[in-house]
Design a protein that fits this description.
The protein has 881 residues and is α+β, with helices and mostly antiparallel strands. It has a domain at 4-111: Phosphorylase Kinase, domain 1. 61% of the residues lie in helices and 7% in strands. Residues 1-19, 182-194, 234-245, 337-375 and 385-398 have low confidence and may be disordered.
């Protein structure tokens, strides 16, 4: 029998079983039930863990085998283990089996996960604040799922959290977990023996209170864990608690906050503000000494953190009127800022102060006396703000759109004897409507503002702002030529030889450059971008200025978009990262501004071939847009489109199609059936239908998309030419080869004239033509030069794992095999096997694209063993969706 020695250090009442490492190493190679012990992974006070493999010939799978060394009866532990085995959650390491060693010692068979413990991960990877909170919330979700099955963990700490290869937290070591009853008076008393780890254990758990609710003890551990993740190592400096003495946790900020904040990649000022404006309240409530004063559940704790992330009121703080309104303002600050509602300047106080009370009214009177011209604007905005208070609007929180609509009828009352103010307020409302996706309402407001600007002696900056805002709206609704004219007017109002040194001019130059790039005028687009660079350098000379940070964030996001349109994808990602850092500081990590940059970054990441990053960026953006703007906002459609792209190239066509259709419905409801963004979604749907050979649907959506794009951008635009190629595929599938080839050749010739022979758009069109020649026309001799040229363009531009590049490689191998050049074919196919290994493993489409020509080529070369291997690979390809 294993000798058990009880001791009271580390994780409360723990057990030391045979500390002699040599003894445990001698067990390697022995059988534990159906499993063979392969190597010793590690040992601790309560357990010893081996790497093992099932050895009974049924399933060849590596597992972790954990021997439990405990004073608790082995039968009781196995009962509790079976309760844990019922848990199914992506962030909980699965318990696969249970058993007993020959001497009766119980063991658990667990999922084997490679990764780092949480503390090591935080020290080495140094994730930022938002990433740490995301990890912590996923841990909370795992614990909440266990609690829903009446299973408590009882030992929450960094050492029991593993971060796997996908940077997902995995909760492990339910070694002292137990099932519990929803009624704390009926919890099992025999397991309440001082369980938990000092610094992370709740007072009642360390004191051995058998009747305490273990779910609330887990909550305490999560609260201390959060503090430890935000201020690493801080808890280790506290005096260790015990059952008889539990000192109050020190939850204040350290003196060297700057050093800790640097690890979270934010300033000390922002860290202090974040902690004092919610994070500290959440931690304090979760770690209260009396369990009855904590959150009612871990799910409620996580909900409060998500409320903090989305700038909603917390249950951990008193919900006063000023607090609720302040949160509403912060949550809507992006559309408010887009509308020009610079509240701190216009009303004279920050959003963290009481906005609607007697002090505010007194401050407003002072502003009225000092700035007569701002009087009507300020009062109008105040009406908008007060209309948003949930307690005064019956059922729940009012949306920003409803608040704006309620105040619009009051507009004329604030314009008596001040006609010059009307243009400014209409611009504010128009920009707010645009930010909310209400394009018709926005256009009406902005056109009225523009007409007033031309009639009244308003200042030129107001006129230029209105021109830019109306241009952005027109561009978003497809009228790019008219938008460009407005941007040019804003830049030349008044006419001047160089760009004026203000953010208005930079915004106009950025917008004009992007519009020109979309129209194919790339050289002129670059000139305007370069003209803005020295102005931006001058304006950002004071980096701590919040207004400069927000304006610079918008500029770098515009610059990222421009470089994407120019085909400079690596630079587009780099600029998006720069914009993301600034936007997070200026607008908050959960904001529309950040989500917009995430979409832009995801687009470039996808084109480069970094599908995992593109999916993560797009998914995060979609979540933020849905939370902040609602599920039917056009921005949600943008994010859904980008999120679907990696799914499509990996062969998950049904899932991709569902996202595309959802995005198309949102976009058409918001902007009408003929918006260019609808055409973009129709184009990707056409690709889905082509891959599935759904000819009628392919023909319908490609023809519809081409008509929209031709009317919006002209027949020679790159997007128009790309979708015309898809229509050509439909013609080819119906047997009209001659017309299809004429369309392909004309499209390639035009794109070379407009963009040059080395642009990535040329590679795209040549690849589409090669698909036609190789797969539909069965002419490998004609497809070969198109594929070689496409690969020449793509290879220096994208990373080796890019889908398009590896598709071209596999098609080259296929074409060369069909031409009898098997040795050359094998070189390209093996390059695809190596460089596209991740794609081949995850994508049904790429797996088949590689396996089928590989089998044919190896067969021609007489490599029978390789043929059998690849036939097996083909049978094991990821399932098509």
């Amino acid at each position: 029998m294993l000798a058990h020695t009880l001791f009271n250090t580390g994780g409360g009442a723990e057990v030391l079983a045979r500390a002699d490492q040599a003894y445990w190493r001698d067990l390697v190679g022995e059988r534990a039930g159906a499993y063979r012990l392969q190597s010793l992974i590690g040992s601790g006070g309560m357990s010893v863990v081996y790497r093992g493999i099932r050895a009974d010939g049924t399933i060849d799978r590596e597992v972790a085998i954990k021997f439990l060394c405990s004073v608790h009866p082995s039968e009781q532990l196995l009962i509790e283990a079976r309760a844990v085995a019922a848990l199914r959650h992506p962030n909980i390491i699965s318990l696969l089996d249970v058993g007993r060693w020959a001497d009766g010692t119980p063991f658990l068979v667990l999922e084997l996960v490679q990764g780092q413990d949480l503390q090591t991960y935080l020290q080495q990877q140094r994730p930022n604040l938002q990433q740490r909170l995301t990890l912590w919330l996923r841990i909370c979700d795992a614990v909440a799922a266990a609690h829903a099955s009446f299973v408590a963990h009882r030992d929450i700490k960094p050492g029991n959290i593993l971060i796997d290869g996908q940077e997902q937290p995995r909760l492990l070591d339910f070694g002292i977990a137990s099932s519990f009853d929803s009624d704390p008076d009926r919890n099992r008393p025999d397991l309440g023996l001082g369980l938990g780890t000092p610094h992370f254990g709740a007072p009642e758990a360390l004191a051995g209170d058998a009747l305490a609710n273990p779910a609330l003890a887990d909550q305490f551990g999560l609260g201390v864990l959060l503090m430890d993740m935000l201020l690493p190592g801080r808890q280790q400096r506290l005096e260790p608690p015990s059952a008889n003495c539990f000192p109050r946790l020190h939850l204040g900020l350290p003196a060297n906050l700057r050093d800790w904040a640097a690890q979270l990649q934010i300033s000390a000022r922002r860290m202090r503000r974040a902690y004092r404006c919610g994070l500290g309240d959440i931690i304090e409530r979760a770690t209260r000494r009396d369990p009855r004063d904590r959150y009612e559940s871990v799910a409620a704790l996580a909900a409060d953190m998500r409320a903090w992330q989305t700038l909603r009121p917390l249950t951990a703080r008193p919900r006063g009127k000023s607090y609720v309104i302040g949160k509403w303002l912060l949550r809507n600050r992006w559309p408010l800022a887009a509308g020009g509602l610079a509240l701190a300047a216009a009303i004279g106080f920050t959003v963290n102060t009481v906005l609607v009370n007697r002090r505010t009214q007194a401050a407003l009177v002072q502003v009225e006396q000092a700035q007569n011209r701002a009087e009507s604007v300020n009062e109008f905005l105040l009406q908008l703000l007060t209309s948003a208070h949930p307690d005064e609007n019956g059922s729940g929180e009012i949306t920003l759109l409803e608040a704006v609509r309620r105040t619009e009828p009051l507009l004329h009352g604030y314009l008596v004897e001040q006609p010059g103010v009307e243009s400014r307020i209409r611009r504010i409302l128009g920009a707010s409507y645009r930010a909310l996706g209400q394009f018709e309402l926005a256009r009406g407001m902005l056109e009225q503002a523009q007409a007033l600007n031309m009639q009244l002696p308003v200042d030129l900056s107001e006129r230029r702002k209105t021109q830019i805002e109306l241009g952005l709206l027109l561009e978003e609704t497809g009228a790019i030529t008219e938008a460009s004219e407005l941007y040019e007017a804003a830049l030349n109002n008044p006419p001047q030889p160089a760009l004026s040194a203000d953010w208005i001019a930079v915004r106009a130059a950025d917008a004009l450059a992007a519009a020109l790039a979309r129209q194919g005028q790339l050289d002129l687009a670059r000139e305007w971008y370069r003209a803005a660079e020295p102005v931006v350098a001058t304006l950002t000379a004071t980096p701590d200025d919040l207004s400069n940070q927000s304006s610079a964030a918008i500029h770098w996001a515009d610059a990222s978009r421009l470089h994407y349109l120019l085909g400079d994808l690596e630079q587009s990602v780099a600029l998006a990262d720069q914009a993301l850092a600034l936007a997070s500081r200026a607008f908050g990590e959960t904001s529309v501004a950040v989500a917009k940059v995430l979409v832009q970054r995801a687009q470039a990441q996808f084109q480069i071939g970094d599908y995992a990053s593109a999916t993560a960026s797009a998914s995060r953006a979609r979540e933020q847009f849905t939370e902040l703007l609602g599920p039917d906002h056009p921005r949600v459609a943008d994010a859904a489109y980008i999120q679907a792209q990696p799914l499509m190239v990996q062969g998950h066509l049904r899932e991709a199609e569902a996202l595309y259709l959802q995005a198309l419905a949102i976009r058409r409801a918001a902007t009408g059936p003929s918006h260019p963004e609808a055409a973009r979604l129709l184009t990707v749907l056409a690709l889905v239908y082509f891959d599935q050979r759904r000819v009628e649907e392919l023909e319908k959506v490609s023809a519809e998309a081409e008509q929209i794009l031709r009317e919006a951008y002209g027949e020679h635009n790159a997007l128009t030419l790309q979708v015309r190629q898809l229509w050509a595929h439909a013609l080819a599938l119906r047997g009209d080869w001659e017309t299809a080839e004429q369309i392909h050749q004309a499209a390639i010739a035009q794109i070379v004239i407009d963009h040059g022979a080395d642009n990535f758009r040329v590679a795209y069109l040549r690849r589409q033509y090669a698909r036609h020649l190789l797969w539909l026309r069965h002419r490998p001799d004609l497809a070969l030069p198109e594929l070689i040229e496409s690969m020449r363009i793509l290879q220096p531009m994208v990373h080796p794992g890019d889908f398009a590049l590896n598709e071209v490689r596999s098609m080259l191998g296929d074409a060369l095999h069909q031409l009898g050049r098997d040795r050359e074919a094998l070189d390209y196919l093996r390059a695809t096997q190596i460089e596209g290994a991740e794609l081949v493993a995850s994508s049904h489409r790429m797996c088949v694209l590689l396996a089928e020509p590989m089998i044919a080529t190896e067969q021609s070369l007489g490599h029978s063993q390789q043929v059998e291997q690849w036939q097996q690979r083909l049978r094991n390809c990821p399932a098509a969706q």
